[in-house]
Write the structure tokens for this entry.
Amino acid sequence: MKQTCPVVVGLFSLVLVACHSHPPVRGEGGGEVTKGIDSEVIPETVMMPAWEGLIQHTRISPPGKATHPCSSLDGTFFVYSSTETSVTPQIFLRETDGVVPTQLTNNRAENIFPRISPNGKKVAFSSNVSGNWDIYVLRLDAPASWLTVTSGPRDEIAPSWSPDGKKLVYSSKSERGYWRLVIVDVATGIPTFLGAGLYPDWSPHPDSADQWIAFQSQSQNGMKGSIWIVRPDGSGLRELVADRHREWSAVNPRWAPDGKWISYATVKRSPESVAYGQAGEADDLWVVMSDGRYDTRITDDLSPEWWPAWSADRLLFVSKREGIQNIFSVRPRPLVD
């Protein structure tokens, strides 16, 4: 058995504990719309609070945490990772308006990055049950039966489904220690290597000619993380969001259901984070159009907020509001006509 990669474990801080069955907490709020790097100015007609309808979906007591939410396409349920029943993170399913979760994994390993298939019947995820991180798929009607997608000596994390549910894109750690994007055919296990990248997300377009994969570059040698897109065949590589002054990072990209917007989180971009935030913690959620226009700040809370995931017209995310890491959602207001 190989040792679990300490970089991955430290990055996600997945020592999570119990969740209490309280109803979702709802509220109202606002945000700030700003101009992003190399982006167009938001029209005055949309210069208003950028979100509404805050909902708290999990209420996990400290020192526990919830992370990595992913919603079904219709927004009726979502999966996430937490330690509601064990000291190691397990995968749970929860109705979006529900209070009682259903546990999908039950072992001594760490199980993270769950992603629901387009047909809503399967969940791909990462687990170190075999010693290192590999990709697995479980069926929601038989969660104890796993399909092993990867089983090599390298760490493989963060799977994302193709729109037809036949392939997965994920990040694999190379011998030199950098993360690279890999596409695998779930049925055959045949991999295709795309290049360097972290936390990929496959766009929802059913037409292969319109499909893109968004991903995060790896921060190294003074370079900050930025958001890129590339076609599944490796063409069209383009940087979408980046700080030319290397002062802040853009991380955790996720496509909206309409394929027109990408949500992401930032590290040290907001003035509040620079003044009061902790080193390495995310600050706010942003959205940007797939062509790079209308780079827009959605949340402006002083607490760290990251791992966005669209749920129909809402945006799920992880937040440390009230000092406890839980899953929340807001409804972004329409930004352009």
